[in-house]
């Protein structure tokens, strides 16, 4: 069974969960995993470690003393320097308004990172599990249609029975879902902040074949594929 587990409604999630934050935490994590193997997760807005690159935002704006915002296109534009410093032993640490907080609070046993950009690949990673929960991060406990659509797009690749939430999300993907995302409150906020490129980037279905799993005890997402 594929269920939708709304954390703001405190639904029970299965042990296999896919956390979905299309704009932008999941997309940023998957982008990072396309060229490094692990991303540390924090809910702090402080630089707590010396030898690290800090990536993050609050309400979309880059955190003042961080190196980069939660912007996958900004990350890609600086891929070489991030990769070089990672390979020299620096940690890559991410802190976002919703996605990293949901990861920290979710109690599922195996937590995968899902987005539109890696939809079929994260579905492939859980193909042997009968029961999987898709966990939209939403936006400060308000429904976020971009994450709901992201769950529907991933569910399309999961050939199992769907709960009614997932049926609705999959149905939505048959319409002009890109316009729905472009008109979402998440997207409008990002457009106002000059991150329009991130919105179109986040909608490129199956454009990145990286999949990460969150290791809660080590506070990090590691690439599994
Ligand atoms: O960084 C983002 O795009 C959002 C900001 S907001 O919460 O939509 O204002 O955070 P995320 O944790 O990636 O949803
Ligand atoms: Mg979001």
TrEMBL record:
Keywords: Hydrolase, Magnesium. It catalyses: (2R)-O-phospho-3-sulfolactate + H2O = (2R)-3-sulfolactate + phosphate. GO terms for molecular function: 2-phosphosulfolactate phosphatase activity; magnesium ion binding; sulfopyruvate decarboxylase activity. The lineage of its organism: Archaea, Methanobacteriati, Methanobacteriota, Methanomada group, Methanococci. This is 2-phosphosulfolactate phosphatase. The keyword Iron-sulfur does not apply. The keyword Nucleotide-binding does not apply. InterPro entries: ComB-like, ComB-like_sf, ComB_archaeal. SUPFAM superfamilies: ComB-like. It comes from the Archaea. The gene is comB. Its cofactor is Mg(2+). GO terms for biological process: coenzyme M biosynthetic process. Its EC number is 3.1.3.71. NCBIfam families: 2-phosphosulfolactate phosphatase. Pfam families: 2-ph_phosp (PF04029). Belongs to the ComB family.
């Amino acid at each position: 069974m594929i269920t939708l587990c709304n954390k703001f409604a405190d639904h029970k999630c299965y042990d296999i969960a896919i956390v979905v934050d299309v704009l932008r935490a999941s997309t940023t994590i998957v982008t990072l995993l396309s060229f490094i193997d692990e991303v540390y997760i924090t809910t702090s807005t402080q630089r707590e470690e010396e030898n690290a690159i800090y990536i993050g935002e609050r309400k979309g704006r880059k955190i003042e003393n961080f190196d980069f915002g939660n912007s996958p296109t900004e990350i890609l534009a600086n891929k070489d320097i991030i990769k070089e410093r990672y390979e020299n032993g620096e940690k890559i640490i991410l802190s976002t308004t919703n996605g990293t907080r949901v990861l920290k609070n979710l109690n599922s046993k195996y937590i995968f990172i899902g987005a539109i950009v890696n939809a079929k690949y994260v579905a492939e990673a859980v193909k042997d599990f009968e029961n999987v929960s898709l966990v939209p991060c939403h936006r400060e406990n308000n429904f976020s249609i971009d994450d709901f659509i992201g769950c529907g797009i991933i569910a399309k690749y999961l050939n199992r029975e769907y709960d009614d939430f997932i049926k609705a999300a999959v149905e939505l993907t048959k319409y002009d879902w890109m316009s729905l995302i472009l008109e979402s409150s998440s997207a409008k906020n990002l457009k106002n902040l000059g991150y329009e490129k991130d919105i179109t980037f986040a909608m490129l279905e199956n454009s990145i074949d990286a999949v990460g799993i969150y290791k809660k005890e080590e506070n990090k997402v590691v690439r599994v594929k």
